[in-house]
Amino acid sequence: MAKVLDDSNLTIQEKMIKVITEYHKAKREMFKDHPLGTLVRHKIKKSLFKDAELDQKIYHIVGSVGQGRWAEVPWISVFIKNLTISATRGYYIVYLFNADGSGFYVSLNQGWTYFKDKYGTKLGKEKIKKTASMIREKLNTIPKNMNLLNIDLKGKGDLARGYELGHICGRYYDVSNIPSKETFITDLQELLITYKEIEGLIGQRSIEQFNDFILLQEDGLYMEDTNNEEQYQLAVQHFIISESVKNTYKVNQKKERPEPIYYKGGQKQWTRNASLASMAMMLSNYTCEIDDSHKTFISKSTNKPFVECHHLVPIAKQDEFQYDLDQLENLVSLCPLCHRLIHLGRDEDKEKLLKKLFDQRKDQLKRIGIEITFSDLKVIYGCQSE
């Protein structure tokens, strides 16, 4: 039977030291109702709320030494309730105890499950690490002593690896050099300010919407707006489409409308896939689909005539269509002059280009569920000519 731990008069950092120094011994004892589990799950939680003066209406704290058996890495997490109350998703502060008993970390971290479910284990590891790096670059309130870039929990399991990959910022406490209670609590309070900055970055979005937004360009996706147009066209130039990739794309198939991306204020926007646009340019043999004799310059990236990709039915109108507008059938290759003309030219000149492209593509568009008349297309482009 486990010996009852006398921890009633311990300070918060002394309780943390007790966990790290006595955990290995506890793991050789019965798991159920072990006093060390009570210390992690309840007593440290109570001390954190009291010493850091945390509002229980705003924050949620959970401690764990495992479920049904001892965990390799015990942990204690502090959550902003509005963001998440689960270590499997979202962003939170977590105390992580090294598997070898050498010390513990305080880490601003993120849930691994979202990335694993969306991308699979292998690619998910790359995505969560990239997200941590990108968020770190956006933050302005990281405390000077919390700029540790990587953590090593000395563990072998998936849980330890997930925490290591999800780490954004934090610091390490060596078991032989734990700071005072005041410093320990100050560290938490300062890191909470950074945590709240993440809450501000997320805004009105869900965690999933925020993560999708962060990884947009990493996933080869670009918003359809003026600010992203040049980046999108440059990205299109850099994708090299192999014959094997080309052959995997299924043409003439309806594809359900994707989920939009959300800005901080909750406004939604649709995205374009740069690799798909690159394929469209390749299929056009890098010529202008208005007139393949139109001259342009040689692109440094492709070593082919420079052309740009254009959605005949603009992505901005995705809300009005049941099926995906970002498909090869809706992508046309244009020389820079024709591309500018179709956006900025006189109505009568725009209409001539639109009519030619519409006649070329209307049957293909219909096969993938994009049904539109030429009159409606003219309205979308603001053409007033009769």
From TrEMBL:
InterPro entries: HNH, HNH_nuc, McrB_DNA-bd. GO terms for molecular function: endonuclease activity; nucleic acid binding; zinc ion binding. Pfam families: HNH, MrcB_N. It comes from the Bacteria. Residues 305-343 form the HNH domain. Residues 18-199 form the Type IV methyl-directed restriction enzyme EcoKMcrB subunit DNA-binding domain. This is McrA.
